[in-house]
Specification:
This protein is α/β, with parallel strands linked by helices. The protein has twelve helices and 13 strands. The strands form three sheets. A seven-stranded mixed β-sheet has the order 2-8-7-6-5-3-4, with helices on both faces. Strands 9-10-13-12 form a four-stranded antiparallel β-sheet, covered by helices on one side. It has a two-stranded parallel sheet with strand order 1-11. The chain starts with 13 loop residues before the first strand and ends with a helix.
Length: 372
Amino acid sequence: MTWQDEFPQDEELVYLNHAAVGPWPQRAQQAVSEFAEENVRQGAAHYPAWLKVEQSLRQRLQHLINAPSCDDIALQKNTSEALSVIAYGLPWQSGDNIVISNHEFPSNRIVWESLASQGVTVKIADLDNTDPEQAIIDCMDAHTRLLSVSSVQYASGLKLDCIKLGHACLQQNVLFCIDAIQSIGAQQFDTQAYQADFVVADGHKWMLGPEGLALFYSTPQARDQLQLNEYGWHMVKHRGEYDRLEWEAAQNAQRFECGSPNMLGAYALNASLSLLEEIGMSEVERQLTQRVDYILDGLSALSDINVISPIQAHRRAGIVTFRHKFISAPQLYHSLMDHNIICAHRGGGIRFSPHFYTPFEKIDQALNFLTQ
């Protein structure tokens, strides 16, 4: 089976929207179908086997981000929930500040702005700069408690140097939180090299999984700083000992999982990640880079198109955003969608986001449409 065989999309469809929601591979559909069939016929008779799939998912996520241990991995509903665990877990003091960027998706802005009632301010670094990392670092001061930025910006596709940022946070004793939703599954990701304290990412974009299941990584030192705000049977150290009256929170990251897991989502995401694992993230990144380069080359030949995304190789991931000189972005977006070219309207332009398997002939269809 080839990569394309895992994605038997409708013939008339050109799918360039992985930065929003990625299609499942066939193996994810099969895993969910088999899990549903088992539920219908046998209920939870084999629940211990379900837990093995959940543990397999944790291990795949650990390897995907190069975490030291799967004990550092918690499963959350989405990125916003994971960020909220951090925002309302840290013991803030009036006068503390948080640094973000001016290009962040709302989930990595609103949660921090909501802390204003506790006397916490949000400082916004301007990434429209020749040195965006330095702009971020220059925003940090003696009162900065946390830096929270996207490794790849959702609208422009700008990729940040997380190694440089992580080093600066370590030097200034600032917690480093990475929203990696536009990186993980698209490019190689190394949380240890970045010296990240927290990493959050939904599974429904580049990881090709379902909505409703997200990664939440924390170092032991960082998670020990978080006060718990959700409690239940699942987050305790002696899980399963239902008659035990005394309890304490689990020491690992599962302390942030208060109740029953999204087992259906775990089956799907575990299957999707097995595909990325088989191919290898270095090859996934190489194939995706080829497709992004192909799109950029095609757009550069169109005189009516202005590319918004950075063109430098080290600044790119899987996103290419552009504007038409004479057609408004909303008008062009609706026209593309009407012709089954699935994309997004972001950052005042049109965002194309292929993946490693996207056929080049499909990209040609999208580029040819722009010449009409």
